[in-house]
Amino acid sequence: MNDPMNDPMAELVDHARNQAARKYSRGEQVRRVLWGGGRWLIRLSPRPCFGWRRFVLRLFGARVGAHVNIYPSTHLYMPWNVEIGEWSALGEDVFVYSLGRVTIGKSATLSYRSHVCAGTHDLNDPELPLRKPPVTIEDGVWVGTEAFIGPGVTVGRAAVVGARAVVVKDVAALDVVAGNPARTVSRRRLPDPADVTRSSSAVPKVTDRRFD
Question: Is residue 206 pLDDT above 50, yes or no?
């Protein structure tokens, strides 16, 4: 092993202070131990049992809306830090590294193997202290296969993150981003919900008496 007194990296990384720092409260440590076993209630569940997985996640403190689809291989690192709106879906092998707060809105989709990361370190401090910036994924967002959403990022309403994109800055609503680092490649053109409501109400209703 290297002698810390002669190690040129010792001044760059304060290992002793990093290891001595308290990164989690006692309550979090207890919940992590319990979740280490409880997670198998999800991992071993049959694929169609979405209601069961919602129940287990709620049991461990997650706020999960109605009709949310979560698969057996989906991994929420600390479910008590996660909120998921109704009708959202987290696909196979999605990893939510929820050291900090992760908020996923309604009707959002996180595709196969995408990664949401709410944990990092202060690289300007030799102690490398743990930081837990929140991540927000707003309503209607679609995160593509194997994309990475970094700490402190907000992905705006109805935005699309392309497959394998690396998102380290906020994404505006309706933007389509791709690449590493992610950049805007186009914008979605969705109808205004108010316009849809007005146009549908203007269409006369047709009644077929055969079905009365």
Answer: no
